[in-house]
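Hi R.,

As promised, here are both runs. First protein below:
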Amino acid sequence: MAGIYLDRARELRSLIDENATKSEGLPIPPETVNALVDAELHKVMVPAAVGGLEIPVNDCIDIWSEISRADGSVGWCLMASCAATAYFAAWCPDEHVNRMFADGVPLSAGQFAPNGTATPDGDGFRIKGRYSFGSGINHAQWAGAGVLTVEPEGVDPRYLFAIYPVEKARITGNWEVMGLQATASYDYTLEDVFVPATATFDMFNLTVHRGGPLYKLGVMPLTAAGHAGFAIGVVRRGLDELYSVARSKQRMGDATMLAQNERFVHEIGELESRFRAARGWLHETFATAERTVGDTGEVDPMDVILTRQATVFVTQEGADILRRAYLLAGTDALRSGGLQRAFRDIHAGTQHIFAGTGPALELGRALLDTAPDNPLDAP
């Protein structure tokens, strides 16, 4: 089944790229958003019980990669919506799910860093806070927020994810950026917004109400998968743009095309190798994590660390690859086009916490803590 949706993603690449070229610097146009919804690509990670597709995580990554290859901003908003919608479909009780999915699988957006507070009020919470990076919030139906509960003195607050109809958020703009421009990742404010308790879940105490073992992995791996798909697609696009330049570019003073320069050809062979190695390890880590939780019903903490670090690695390695590609392309990379856009978008992606240093530190500590005294006794 997943192959059908991968084919649909590939069929949309030309449309998405054409729209991105025509609307440079503007939010994703409605024609692109509608095409994604018509192709049902916003459903790929969402549980089947609410009308989603619930396909394996590596297939989700491949689909997000294909869309990101066409335009990183579109891939970014798509993966963010898929993940957020999946969260609340899997981890909220029926009362909320019946409301959120009454008209089918919606588009979602929002920032889930704990930048707000949730004060108990009857059967819900009064939420207030200021948020940034609401990618896709201008075309979403639902928006989310991370909040810390207001508790009596001496009681630790809970870290909740909450979601509400997007019109309850006051969008304040502030998205003049170098990369991922079309995501329209606007700031937004919540001012005393009531959210039923059923439209929240505890980040550290999840209950899987619907969907298969995949949803036991939790917020971190499922979010990482989206960022991985984005990075893979953007880097793939940048490399392909470089190869196109090489076949047609002859630098001043050179007697041959770039594609006939052995030093250049050797370097692109190395760049391609680095990209494929990072992508391969990424897919391996997610396949292992999904297989383990499916076979045992339990999440291996090392799988959580590895999926996150593989995502960081493919993003940061991808940025380094595209920095080199930018230089190899010469003045062609200065001009508007696929390579320049890929270069800008991957560097915007490196600024996200899911491309940060934390997972490498966690992995290093875990490896040292579990290393045997005799190296030959390692698994």
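And here is the second one, sequence first, then its structure tokens:
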Amino acid sequence: MMHRLIALLAFLFLPLNAQAEQVVAALSQTRVSVNANFDGSEILVFGAIKREAAIPENSPLDVIITVSGPEHVETIRRKDRRFGIWINVEAQVIGHTPTFYTVASTRALHDILPPLTDSLWKITADKRILPGMRGLPAREALIRLRENDDLYRTREGEVSLIEDTLFDTSIALPSNIVEGTYTTRIFLIRDGEVIDSYGTSINVQKVGIERWLYNLAYQNALIYGVMALAIAGLFGWGASQVFRLIRR
């Protein structure tokens, strides 16, 4: 009886996070600097699968990688034609949504990711972006607009997986990204289930004069406004002097 009790206690206190397959991953860079000449950046995501046992047979392994940008509250406005002009007739505030969202996978998502697993882990944009508002015009408009701006992407089949062990892909950050923390998640999928996941982050930050102007605008709005008016007035005066010289 004592031996059985000891064996049971030993089983209960075994590490619960022991897994047969685990993600070991890294990024080519974890900090992106945005300046006046910034035209986008490319992040290489790469890694390997650490195993405690042989690779299972007849059970393909897949990798899904997501990158999510800072979340903002957005206002979606609907325009309508009234008296011959287009005006805003309705506005709806949308809750916190990622300003950027990319999903990359080894194969087509419908072949490797069941809807239930997707709902539990919120992997695709449809399950991650305000799933409770699915079907509402404001949500669909937000997703459509960000897809058109190349901020929401789905890249099926663009994660390379070699011998079920080494994987890599590149994530392109466009020039119109916002400042903040970009969360990267990596999922190992086997038989439609997530067997391991790994998370890290990318810090996107304005530098140089852009950083100074950004801080000034948000921390000293009055000074920023006065300075903007002064600069506009100076350029206007300069332009008028140039035209006066030309006319002579």
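A quick note on the second one: Residues 207-248 form one domain. Let me know what you think.

Best,
J.
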